[in-house]
Amino acid sequence: MLIKKLLLYLPVLEQSLELLMQMTIRDQITADLKTALKARQMETVSTLRTILGEIANAEAVETDTDFVPMSGRSNDVPRRVLTDADIRGILTAEADHHRAAIAEFESVGHQDAIERLQAGLDLINGYLQME
After folding, report:
1. Which of 24, 82, 93, 124 is most buried by a 10 A CB count?
2. What is the C-alpha separation between 49 and 15, in angstroms, rounded?
3. Which domains are delineated in the chain?
4. DSSP sequence for 35-90
5. Which parts of the chain sit beneath pLDDT 50?
6. Cα end-to-end distance, the chain, whole Å
7. Residue 80's pLDDT is what?
8. How many Å apart are CA 44 and CA 35, to the nearest integer?
């Protein structure tokens, strides 16, 4: 009886697993941001928002200053689509910024800032280790 019930849920579980496997790094960061917001983990929220901001900046495209939108039309241009490799590059750069900041704070002895930045670096490294 229990096995029959489990077999009924198997297709749903397989579909959920496939969705998790297809989740991009950006999707994972966004989902983790929602979780951190609900848990009120402000240091994590800050780091994740910084990462998402960097990704959004990388997606922006240069616009021509001579461009004049047609009447009634939006002057929005399509954004650049980033691959996971592009996002990994952004994460690597952000990790480098954290390492440099940690080194600076170590030289002046601000232990609280070092701990905060180290937690952010650990979070970033977790995303870099994702397949």
Report:
1. 124
2. 29
3. 24-58+84-131 (1.10.1510.10)
4. HHHHHT-HHHHHHHHHHHHHHHHHH-----TT--PPTTS----PPPPPPHHHHHHH
5. 19-20
6. 38
7. 84
8. 10
Q: In terms of residues, how long is the chain?
A: 131
Whole-angstrom distance, CA of residue 87 vs CA of residue 25: 7
What type of residue is 12? V
Could you report the per-residue pLDDT of 58-82, keeping only the tens digit for each?
988 776 666 666 655 555 667 788 8
Structure tokens at 1: 């009886």
Alpha carbon distances (Å) from 33 to 5, 28, 91, 94, 99: 34, 8, 15, 17, 22
CB 130 within 8 A of CB 31: no
Secondary element (H or E) of residue 28: helix 25-39
d(C-alpha 129, C-alpha 125), whole Å: 6
Query: What's the rounded Cα separation, in Å, for the pair 92 and 86?
Result: 10
